[in-house]
Amino acid sequence: MLTLGLITDLHFGPEAGFAGKLRKLTRSAPGLAKAFVARMNDVVHPDLVVNLGDDIEDESHDADLARYDACVKLLRGARAELVNVAGNHDTAHLAPAELLSVWQRPDLDRLYHSFDRGGFHFVVLHTRERKDHDVTVGDEQLRWLREDLARASAPTVVLMHHSAADQDLRGNRWFEGSPHICLVEERRALRTILRESGRVRVVFNGHLHWNHLDVIDGIPFVTLQSLIENLDDDAPGRPAAAHAVVHLEPSRVVVKVEGAERATYQFEA
């Protein structure tokens, strides 16, 4: 069995409102991230810690780079291999090479890649958001994904920032009525590649600031709540403090979402 600790949308940086209300409790981000790392080290003991992106609340190049570095360094305090996924806020002012430098991945020249651990194949995708316009992966990445999965022989886990599901966005206070800035434009083509591989056990993403599950063509698409989402309507607020613990077996995946909004999902292959 392989155990993962997942965290997403930490948003280190200045406070951010939405529709005139306090929505992201960014001041709480460092403390909540430290608590996550402590739980990983003291309780969970995962094989991998997965950071699904949007580590920062983008502001400017220099501020973003300093905060991104601080966030990743904090997560690296977990006694487990750290796997990073690029979010849209992370790349607003920072170049891919800068993110890869913070990740300490000189072996990579792009933000999408794959690797094998503990009998599983992992695919890290890079979803690109053109601010307030669309979210894409691009033809080149789709071709790479098809070829990568054709070569893989192990059960596969896909990690990405935006969602590849056709989520029902009603009730989402960030994205209701705006699928173009939270769902991947080529999601149907992407899902076809995942389905045809016959190996994908689960897909994880963040970005939407809620917990959500879709099962499409037998593949579960799990969206994880933001660490610092304000669960109250406005200030002073109550953070979601969300993270997930995932137990992977060749024929079973168990996902336990921790924090203020708990959930448990179990999938059998």
From TrEMBL:
Species assigned in the record: Polyangium spumosum
Protein name: Phosphoesterase
Cited SUPFAM superfamilies: Metallo-dependent phosphatases
Taxon lineage: Bacteria, Pseudomonadati, Myxococcota, Polyangia, Polyangiales
Family annotation (InterPro entries): Metallo-depent_PP-like, STPP_CPPED1
